[in-house]
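Summary of Year 1 activities. Much of the first year was spent building the evaluation harness for sequence design. The harness presents a backbone, in tokenized form, and records the residue chosen at every position. We chose the following record to illustrate the format because it has been used consistently in internal testing since the harness was completed.
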């Protein structure tokens, strides 16, 4: 188990938590149906991108998704707010350019990326009032007709709670509604291509939303 942080906002600013996180999420065992569903979601995203396209992994954590993106032939840049997470990511995928960055204030020029992946628990750390900042930045750095694939915890009602993280420790968790996410994305210039929900792979305690969208 990871250490319990006094401040949930600084949960991931710890080398031990980053290590525990990586060990857990790099070895998640899914049932066949869950694995097939997630594979289909990623494959849909891949088909929305040009060959050898440039993909931003927004909130890359310890670089778990990078091997899949590289295998598909994409050029990948990963950003995360935790330097402890990025240290592990750089060791796992040395060919990827990893940078410490706030996804609400991306330090890239307009139209830099063909696609953006924002998967796992990234958006649980973003309040509903800041979704427009995130999706606005995504739209700004995406090329014309660029694609985005996001996943985050889904709920019937918007809420923010403090929970025990899977890897141990306390974290603030924002559960988002479909309407809140889709409305924010549309305000920021995205058209929704597909929306789906599925139980989480660890414990089946809550559902995740999976959203594919294109820059209009």
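For this record, the design step produced the sequence shown next.
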């Amino acid at each position: 188990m990871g250490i319990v942080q006094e401040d949930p906002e600084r949960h991931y600013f710890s080398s031990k938590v980053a290590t525990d996180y990586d060990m857990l999420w790099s070895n998640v065992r899914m049932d066949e149906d869950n694995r097939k569903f997630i594979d289909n979601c990623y494959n849909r995203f891949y088909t929305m991108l040009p060959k050898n396209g440039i993909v931003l992994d927004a909130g890359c954590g310890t670089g778990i998704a990078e091997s899949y993106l590289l295998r598909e032939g994409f050029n990948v840049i990963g950003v995360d707010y935790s330097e402890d997470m990025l240290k592990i990511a750089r060791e796992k995928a040395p060919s990827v350019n990893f940078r410490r960055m706030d996804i609400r204030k991306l330090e890239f020029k307009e139209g830099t990326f063909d696609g953006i992946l924002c998967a796992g628990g990234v958006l649980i750390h973003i309040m509903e009032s800041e979704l427009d900042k995130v999706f606005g930045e995504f739209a700004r750095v995406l090329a014309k007709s660029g694609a985005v694939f996001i996943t985050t915890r889904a709920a019937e009602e918007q809420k923010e709670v403090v929970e025990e993280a899977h890897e141990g420790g306390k974290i603030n968790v924002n559960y988002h509604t479909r309407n809140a996410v889709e409305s924010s994305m549309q305000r920021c210039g995205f058209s929704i291509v597909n929306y789906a929900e599925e139980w989480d792979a660890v414990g089946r305690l809550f559902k995740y939303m999976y959203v594919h969208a294109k820059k209009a």
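The first strand starts at residue 54 and ends at 58. Quantitative recovery figures across the full test set are reported in Table 2.
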